[in-house]
Amino acid sequence: MTAPVTTDSELDEAPAADQGGRGAVRRYGLLAVVAALVAGLVLGYAGGLLTPTLARPGENSAEAGFARDMTAHHNQAVAMGLLAFSQGQDPEVRQVGVDIATGQQGEIGTMQTWLRSWKLDPTGEQAPMAWMKDGGGLVKNGLMPGMATPEEMAKLRGASGREFDVLFLQMMIRHHIGGVHMIDGILDEGHDDDVLAVAQIMKNTQQNDLTNLNAALKRLGGTP
Is the model's pLDDT at 134 over the cut of 60? Predict the structure, then answer.
């Protein structure tokens, strides 16, 4: 999916409330981000409708498990991206947060539309990662690969300045690495051509993100 692009001018349209440039609330920028998220979700739903339904994946298929688990995985990335927009000090961190949030929101729309078109519920009875070979062993404390713990998310919300920027980049790098591993799982085990095509786009996007995230982290003097 192609994410709606939010420009630097949209991000910085509202005046900053402090010298760090973060601002208590970037009102106009926030409205632009909300609009982009809604547009991404709508486009994702529309894209998902293009998936043929002649041979629907079943309840316990790899495709259904992937759509459900990756939706949950993406939801956390969207939350992290919005935190980067609202709390990031570095302009690149704010921009990459918006790009990830809008892009993955669109992919959530696609995956949820798949499930509806397959006549399946958004959530199933299988344990997380049960669809992937040896996937159960990848779940740690109920979290899928790369996902942050509640304590880590609380720490991110409480951070500011360079500390926030570095922590966000470190967490999102780990999150994306886990996401790519899950995508590799569906590419290996899935059978639906349209799902596989979208999954490959997801992988390409996240690998490109990882290049940019690692470069930004190096520039800010952080370690992976």
Answer: yes
